[in-house]
Protein backbone atom coordinates (compact mmCIF):
# COMPACT_ATOMS: atom_id res chain seq x y z
CA UNK A 1 0.00 0.00 0.00
CA UNK A 2 1.40 3.41 -0.95
CA UNK A 3 1.36 6.37 1.39
CA UNK A 4 -1.11 8.07 -0.97
CA UNK A 5 -3.60 5.29 -0.62
CA UNK A 6 -3.37 5.44 3.17
CA UNK A 7 -4.17 9.17 3.06
CA UNK A 8 -7.03 8.49 0.67
CA UNK A 9 -8.32 5.78 2.98
CA UNK A 10 -8.25 8.19 5.86
CA UNK A 11 -10.15 10.76 3.79
CA UNK A 12 -12.75 8.18 2.87
CA UNK A 13 -13.00 7.21 6.49
CA UNK A 14 -13.73 10.81 7.46
CA UNK A 15 -16.29 11.13 4.67
CA UNK A 16 -18.03 8.03 5.87
CA UNK A 17 -17.91 8.96 9.54
CA UNK A 18 -17.94 12.75 9.65
CA UNK A 19 -17.04 14.01 13.11
CA UNK A 20 -19.16 16.87 14.38
CA UNK A 21 -16.78 19.80 14.82
CA UNK A 22 -16.77 20.62 18.52
CA UNK A 23 -18.06 24.16 18.61
CA UNK A 24 -18.04 26.15 21.73
CA UNK A 25 -20.10 29.25 22.23
CA UNK A 26 -18.44 31.79 24.48
CA UNK A 27 -20.30 34.96 25.38
CA UNK A 28 -18.76 37.99 27.00
CA UNK A 29 -21.39 40.20 28.53
CA UNK A 30 -21.06 43.69 29.98
CA UNK A 31 -23.81 44.78 32.39
CA UNK A 32 -24.28 48.46 33.39
CA UNK A 33 -21.98 51.38 32.58
CA UNK A 34 -18.68 49.97 33.86
CA UNK A 35 -19.35 46.45 32.51
CA UNK A 36 -20.20 47.81 29.05
CA UNK A 37 -17.11 50.08 29.06
CA UNK A 38 -14.91 47.07 29.82
CA UNK A 39 -16.58 45.04 27.08
CA UNK A 40 -16.01 47.91 24.62
CA UNK A 41 -12.29 48.09 25.45
CA UNK A 42 -11.90 44.32 25.47
CA UNK A 43 -12.94 44.18 21.86
CA UNK A 44 -10.48 46.92 20.99
CA UNK A 45 -7.80 44.80 22.67
CA UNK A 46 -8.71 42.00 20.27
CA UNK A 47 -10.13 39.14 22.36
CA UNK A 48 -10.98 36.53 19.70
CA UNK A 49 -13.73 33.92 19.23
CA UNK A 50 -16.30 35.55 21.46
CA UNK A 51 -19.88 36.64 21.10
CA UNK A 52 -20.36 40.02 22.79
CA UNK A 53 -23.52 41.36 24.43
CA UNK A 54 -23.86 44.81 25.99
CA UNK A 55 -26.65 45.11 28.56
CA UNK A 56 -27.76 48.33 30.22
CA UNK A 57 -30.76 50.34 31.35
CA UNK A 58 -29.09 53.47 29.95
CA UNK A 59 -29.96 53.95 26.27
CA UNK A 60 -27.41 56.68 25.48
CA UNK A 61 -24.54 54.74 27.01
CA UNK A 62 -25.60 51.48 25.34
CA UNK A 63 -25.65 53.26 21.98
CA UNK A 64 -22.00 54.27 22.40
CA UNK A 65 -20.79 50.68 23.03
CA UNK A 66 -19.40 48.37 20.37
CA UNK A 67 -21.01 44.92 20.75
CA UNK A 68 -22.49 42.24 18.51
CA UNK A 69 -25.74 42.38 20.45
CA UNK A 70 -27.26 45.02 22.75
CA UNK A 71 -30.09 44.58 25.24
CA UNK A 72 -31.78 47.61 26.77
CA UNK A 73 -33.27 46.49 30.07
CA UNK A 74 -36.22 47.90 31.88
CA UNK A 75 -38.69 49.19 29.29
CA UNK A 76 -41.26 51.40 31.00
CA UNK A 77 -39.56 50.97 34.37
CA UNK A 78 -36.41 52.86 33.45
CA UNK A 79 -37.33 54.36 30.05
CA UNK A 80 -33.74 54.13 28.90
CA UNK A 81 -32.56 56.46 31.66
CA UNK A 82 -30.51 54.12 33.86
CA UNK A 83 -31.28 52.69 37.28
CA UNK A 84 -30.22 55.82 39.22
CA UNK A 85 -27.86 53.95 41.53
CA UNK A 86 -30.67 51.72 42.84
CA UNK A 87 -29.88 48.00 42.53
CA UNK A 88 -33.50 47.08 43.21
CA UNK A 89 -34.40 48.91 40.00
CA UNK A 90 -31.54 47.18 38.15
CA UNK A 91 -32.73 43.76 39.35
CA UNK A 92 -36.33 44.54 38.47
CA UNK A 93 -35.34 45.83 35.03
CA UNK A 94 -33.50 42.56 34.36
CA UNK A 95 -36.54 40.56 35.49
CA UNK A 96 -38.72 42.51 33.07
CA UNK A 97 -36.34 41.53 30.24
CA UNK A 98 -35.94 37.91 31.41
CA UNK A 99 -37.43 36.50 28.19
CA UNK A 100 -34.96 38.38 25.95
CA UNK A 101 -32.07 37.40 28.20
CA UNK A 102 -33.09 33.74 28.11
CA UNK A 103 -33.16 33.84 24.32
CA UNK A 104 -29.77 35.55 24.21
CA UNK A 105 -28.09 32.87 26.37
CA UNK A 106 -29.58 29.83 24.63
CA UNK A 107 -26.81 27.43 23.57
CA UNK A 108 -24.07 29.23 25.52
CA UNK A 109 -21.25 27.06 26.89
CA UNK A 110 -19.32 29.73 28.78
CA UNK A 111 -20.56 33.17 29.83
CA UNK A 112 -18.26 35.87 31.15
CA UNK A 113 -20.37 38.46 32.99
CA UNK A 114 -18.59 41.76 33.67
CA UNK A 115 -20.08 44.48 35.88
CA UNK A 116 -19.04 47.34 38.13
CA UNK A 117 -20.58 46.97 41.60
CA UNK A 118 -22.05 49.89 43.52
CA UNK A 119 -24.46 51.42 41.00
CA UNK A 120 -27.98 50.32 40.06
CA UNK A 121 -27.75 48.32 36.86
CA UNK A 122 -24.52 46.35 37.28
CA UNK A 123 -25.20 45.55 40.95
CA UNK A 124 -28.86 44.64 40.53
CA UNK A 125 -29.03 43.18 37.02
CA UNK A 126 -25.72 41.29 36.73
CA UNK A 127 -26.72 38.60 39.29
CA UNK A 128 -29.96 38.05 37.35
CA UNK A 129 -28.00 37.85 34.09
CA UNK A 130 -25.58 35.33 35.69
CA UNK A 131 -28.54 33.29 36.96
CA UNK A 132 -30.12 33.17 33.50
CA UNK A 133 -26.81 32.15 31.90
CA UNK A 134 -26.45 29.39 34.51
CA UNK A 135 -30.01 28.19 33.86
CA UNK A 136 -29.14 28.01 30.15
CA UNK A 137 -26.44 25.50 31.14
CA UNK A 138 -23.40 27.77 30.76
CA UNK A 139 -20.32 27.82 32.95
CA UNK A 140 -20.52 31.33 34.39
CA UNK A 141 -17.33 33.25 35.05
CA UNK A 142 -18.11 36.67 36.52
CA UNK A 143 -15.82 39.65 36.84
CA UNK A 144 -16.99 42.29 39.33
CA UNK A 145 -15.19 45.52 40.13
CA UNK A 146 -15.60 47.05 43.58
CA UNK A 147 -15.96 50.82 44.10
CA UNK A 148 -13.35 53.41 45.06
CA UNK A 149 -13.11 54.14 48.81
CA UNK A 150 -14.52 57.64 48.29
CA UNK A 151 -17.74 56.20 46.84
CA UNK A 152 -18.62 55.56 50.49
CA UNK A 153 -22.33 54.86 50.31
CA UNK A 154 -21.83 52.50 47.37
CA UNK A 155 -19.52 50.13 49.24
CA UNK A 156 -22.18 48.18 51.21
CA UNK A 157 -24.32 48.07 48.06
CA UNK A 158 -21.38 46.63 46.12
CA UNK A 159 -20.77 43.99 48.82
CA UNK A 160 -24.34 42.76 48.52
CA UNK A 161 -24.03 42.70 44.75
CA UNK A 162 -20.81 40.67 44.96
CA UNK A 163 -22.50 38.18 47.29
CA UNK A 164 -25.40 37.85 44.85
CA UNK A 165 -23.02 37.38 41.91
CA UNK A 166 -21.19 34.66 43.83
CA UNK A 167 -24.38 32.66 44.14
CA UNK A 168 -24.84 32.30 40.38
CA UNK A 169 -21.24 32.12 39.22
CA UNK A 170 -18.93 29.12 38.88
CA UNK A 171 -16.05 31.52 39.22
CA UNK A 172 -16.22 35.07 40.56
CA UNK A 173 -13.27 37.38 40.21
CA UNK A 174 -13.42 40.59 42.20
CA UNK A 175 -11.12 43.35 40.98
CA UNK A 176 -10.79 46.30 43.32
CA UNK A 177 -10.84 49.77 41.71
CA UNK A 178 -8.78 51.05 44.70
CA UNK A 179 -5.86 48.94 43.48
CA UNK A 180 -5.71 51.25 40.47
CA UNK A 181 -4.65 54.03 42.87
CA UNK A 182 -1.60 51.94 43.84
CA UNK A 183 -0.78 50.63 40.36
CA UNK A 184 -1.56 53.55 38.06
CA UNK A 185 -2.02 56.68 40.22
CA UNK A 186 -0.68 59.15 37.65
CA UNK A 187 -2.45 57.82 34.57
CA UNK A 188 -5.42 59.73 33.17
CA UNK A 189 -8.65 58.16 34.46
CA UNK A 190 -9.57 56.53 31.16
CA UNK A 191 -6.14 54.93 30.82
CA UNK A 192 -6.21 53.77 34.44
CA UNK A 193 -9.49 51.95 33.78
CA UNK A 194 -7.74 50.61 30.67
CA UNK A 195 -5.19 48.89 32.96
CA UNK A 196 -8.02 46.97 34.60
CA UNK A 197 -9.63 46.20 31.26
CA UNK A 198 -6.29 44.79 30.10
CA UNK A 199 -6.25 42.42 33.11
CA UNK A 200 -9.81 41.33 32.30
CA UNK A 201 -8.94 40.88 28.59
CA UNK A 202 -5.91 38.72 29.42
CA UNK A 203 -7.95 36.49 31.70
CA UNK A 204 -10.75 36.07 29.16
CA UNK A 205 -8.40 35.48 26.19
CA UNK A 206 -6.45 33.04 28.35
CA UNK A 207 -9.55 30.90 28.78
CA UNK A 208 -10.97 31.32 25.25
CA UNK A 209 -7.63 30.68 23.51
CA UNK A 210 -7.07 27.60 25.67
CA UNK A 211 -10.40 26.16 24.60
CA UNK A 212 -10.66 27.29 20.99
CA UNK A 213 -7.15 27.11 19.52
CA UNK A 214 -5.59 23.71 18.77
CA UNK A 215 -3.03 22.60 21.35
CA UNK A 216 -0.23 20.10 21.62
CA UNK A 217 -1.82 18.88 24.83
CA UNK A 218 -5.42 19.89 24.53
CA UNK A 219 -7.83 21.14 27.18
CA UNK A 220 -11.48 21.05 26.28
CA UNK A 221 -14.85 22.07 27.63
CA UNK A 222 -15.32 18.73 29.40
CA UNK A 223 -12.08 19.38 31.35
CA UNK A 224 -13.44 22.78 32.38
CA UNK A 225 -16.66 21.17 33.63
CA UNK A 226 -14.64 18.58 35.57
CA UNK A 227 -12.54 21.26 37.25
CA UNK A 228 -15.54 23.36 38.28
CA UNK A 229 -17.25 20.26 39.74
CA UNK A 230 -14.68 20.56 42.55
CA UNK A 231 -15.91 24.04 43.45
CA UNK A 232 -18.60 22.87 45.87
CA UNK A 233 -19.59 26.43 46.73
CA UNK A 234 -15.99 27.58 47.14
CA UNK A 235 -14.36 30.41 45.25
CA UNK A 236 -12.42 30.00 42.05
CA UNK A 237 -10.05 32.33 40.32
CA UNK A 238 -8.22 32.89 37.06
CA UNK A 239 -4.49 33.51 36.87
CA UNK A 240 -2.51 34.87 33.97
CA UNK A 241 1.22 35.43 33.53
CA UNK A 242 3.51 36.14 30.62
CA UNK A 243 7.24 36.67 30.29
CA UNK A 244 10.59 35.62 28.90
CA UNK A 245 11.36 31.92 28.52
CA UNK A 246 14.66 32.70 30.28
CA UNK A 247 12.88 33.57 33.54
CA UNK A 248 10.16 30.97 34.11
CA UNK A 249 10.19 31.60 37.89
CA UNK A 250 9.26 35.24 37.30
CA UNK A 251 6.25 34.18 35.18
CA UNK A 252 5.06 32.01 38.07
CA UNK A 253 5.41 34.93 40.51
CA UNK A 254 3.61 37.29 38.13
CA UNK A 255 0.71 34.89 37.70
CA UNK A 256 0.37 34.21 41.43
CA UNK A 257 0.82 37.79 42.57
CA UNK A 258 -1.64 39.65 40.38
CA UNK A 259 -1.96 42.90 42.32
CA UNK A 260 -5.72 43.03 41.69
CA UNK A 261 -6.44 39.70 43.37
CA UNK A 262 -6.43 39.07 47.13
CA UNK A 263 -6.55 35.31 47.05
CA UNK A 264 -5.08 32.48 49.11
CA UNK A 265 -4.38 29.54 46.78
CA UNK A 266 -3.21 27.03 49.35
CA UNK A 267 -6.54 25.19 49.52
CA UNK A 268 -7.11 24.95 45.74
CA UNK A 269 -8.51 21.47 45.09
CA UNK A 270 -8.45 21.44 41.31
CA UNK A 271 -6.89 23.47 38.53
CA UNK A 272 -6.34 23.81 34.85
CA UNK A 273 -2.89 25.09 33.94
CA UNK A 274 -2.24 25.88 30.30
CA UNK A 275 0.98 27.22 28.85
CA UNK A 276 1.82 28.63 25.44
CA UNK A 277 5.39 28.89 24.22
CA UNK A 278 7.51 29.08 21.07
CA UNK A 279 8.94 26.17 19.07
CA UNK A 280 12.06 26.12 21.26
CA UNK A 281 10.18 25.83 24.55
CA UNK A 282 12.04 23.25 26.62
CA UNK A 283 10.46 20.63 28.80
CA UNK A 284 12.38 22.02 31.76
CA UNK A 285 11.03 25.57 31.38
CA UNK A 286 7.48 24.32 30.76
CA UNK A 287 7.82 22.17 33.87
CA UNK A 288 9.15 25.04 36.01
CA UNK A 289 6.08 27.15 35.21
CA UNK A 290 3.47 24.41 35.63
CA UNK A 291 5.06 22.95 38.76
CA UNK A 292 5.70 26.41 40.24
CA UNK A 293 2.00 27.22 40.04
CA UNK A 294 0.75 23.76 41.04
CA UNK A 295 3.05 23.73 44.10
CA UNK A 296 0.93 26.49 45.70
CA UNK A 297 -2.23 24.38 45.56
CA UNK A 298 -3.47 21.61 47.84
CA UNK A 299 -1.22 18.50 47.90
CA UNK A 300 -3.90 16.26 46.40
CA UNK A 301 -5.27 18.85 43.92
CA UNK A 302 -6.55 17.49 40.59
CA UNK A 303 -4.40 19.30 38.03
CA UNK A 304 -5.17 19.17 34.32
CA UNK A 305 -2.48 20.74 32.20
CA UNK A 306 -2.26 21.73 28.56
CA UNK A 307 0.40 23.18 26.26
CA UNK A 308 0.46 24.94 22.93
CA UNK A 309 3.32 25.85 20.63
CA UNK A 310 2.89 29.10 18.71
CA UNK A 311 5.68 30.37 16.46
CA UNK A 312 4.78 34.00 17.34
CA UNK A 313 5.45 33.18 21.01
CA UNK A 314 9.14 32.48 20.31
CA UNK A 315 11.22 33.27 23.39
CA UNK A 316 8.28 33.83 25.70
CA UNK A 317 5.85 31.77 27.78
CA UNK A 318 2.23 32.57 28.60
CA UNK A 319 0.44 30.75 31.37
CA UNK A 320 -3.25 30.68 32.17
CA UNK A 321 -4.62 28.88 35.20
CA UNK A 322 -8.04 28.34 36.71
CA UNK A 323 -7.78 27.45 40.38
CA UNK A 324 -10.87 26.06 42.07
CA UNK A 325 -11.42 26.08 45.83
CA UNK A 326 -9.39 29.17 46.72
CA UNK A 327 -10.07 31.55 49.62
CA UNK A 328 -10.61 35.30 49.43
CA UNK A 329 -8.35 37.31 51.73
CA UNK A 330 -10.98 40.05 51.97
CA UNK A 331 -14.00 39.16 54.10
CA UNK A 332 -17.04 38.37 51.98
CA UNK A 333 -20.65 39.13 52.78
CA UNK A 334 -23.05 36.23 53.20
CA UNK A 335 -24.91 35.40 50.02
CA UNK A 336 -27.87 37.55 49.16
CA UNK A 337 -29.97 38.71 46.26
CA UNK A 338 -31.87 41.88 45.76
CA UNK A 339 -35.52 41.29 46.13
CA UNK A 340 -37.43 42.82 43.28
CA UNK A 341 -39.36 45.63 44.96
CA UNK A 342 -43.08 45.07 44.55
CA UNK A 343 -44.82 48.04 43.01
CA UNK A 344 -41.73 49.64 41.49
CA UNK A 345 -43.22 49.54 38.01
CA UNK A 346 -46.31 51.37 39.20
CA UNK A 347 -44.27 53.93 41.13
CA UNK A 348 -42.12 54.94 38.21
CA UNK A 349 -44.48 54.74 35.31
N1 LIG B 1 -13.20 49.76 36.23
C1 LIG B 1 -14.19 50.62 35.95
N2 LIG B 1 -15.03 50.95 36.94
C2 LIG B 1 -16.02 51.84 36.67
C3 LIG B 1 -16.20 52.44 35.38
N3 LIG B 1 -17.30 53.26 35.44
C4 LIG B 1 -17.78 53.16 36.70
N4 LIG B 1 -17.02 52.32 37.45
C5 LIG B 1 -17.27 51.80 38.81
O1 LIG B 1 -18.42 50.97 38.74
C6 LIG B 1 -19.41 51.37 39.70
C7 LIG B 1 -20.77 51.24 39.06
O2 LIG B 1 -20.94 52.28 38.12
P1 LIG B 1 -21.73 52.09 36.76
O3 LIG B 1 -21.35 50.84 36.10
O4 LIG B 1 -21.58 53.36 35.98
O5 LIG B 1 -23.22 51.96 37.30
P2 LIG B 1 -24.42 51.21 36.57
O6 LIG B 1 -24.29 49.77 36.81
O7 LIG B 1 -24.50 51.67 35.15
O8 LIG B 1 -25.68 51.68 37.41
P3 LIG B 1 -26.71 52.91 37.15
O9 LIG B 1 -25.97 53.93 36.33
O10 LIG B 1 -27.06 53.33 38.52
O11 LIG B 1 -27.84 52.31 36.42
C8 LIG B 1 -19.00 52.79 40.07
O12 LIG B 1 -19.39 53.02 41.40
C9 LIG B 1 -17.51 52.84 39.89
O13 LIG B 1 -16.84 52.40 41.05
C10 LIG B 1 -15.28 52.05 34.34
O14 LIG B 1 -15.36 52.51 33.19
N5 LIG B 1 -14.31 51.14 34.69
MG1 LIG C 1 -25.26 53.53 34.36
Quick rundown:
This protein is an alpha/beta fold and 349 residues long. Helix content is 41%, strand content 22%.
Q: What ligand molecules are bound, each kind once?
A: guanosine-5'-triphosphate, magnesium ion
Query: What is the CATH domain class of the largest domain?
Result: Alpha Beta
Rg calculated over all Cα atoms: 21 Å
Rounded mean pLDDT is 88
Total number of helical segments? 13
Q: Which CATH architecture of the largest domain is right? A: 3-Layer(aba) Sandwich
What kind of sheet is the major sheet?
A: 6 strands, parallel
**Order of strands side by side in the largest beta sheet?**
3-2-1-4-5-6
Could you name the CATH homologous superfamily of the largest domain? Tubulin/FtsZ, GTPase domain
Give the beta-strand count.
11
> What number of domains?
2
CATH topology tier name of the largest domain: Rossmann fold
How much strand content do the residues show? Answer: 15-25%
Helical proportion, percent range: 40-55%
Shape: globular
Q: What distance lies between the first and last C-alpha atoms, to the nearest angstrom?
A: 79 Å
Q: Regions with pLDDT < 50 over 5+ consecutive residues?
A: 336-349
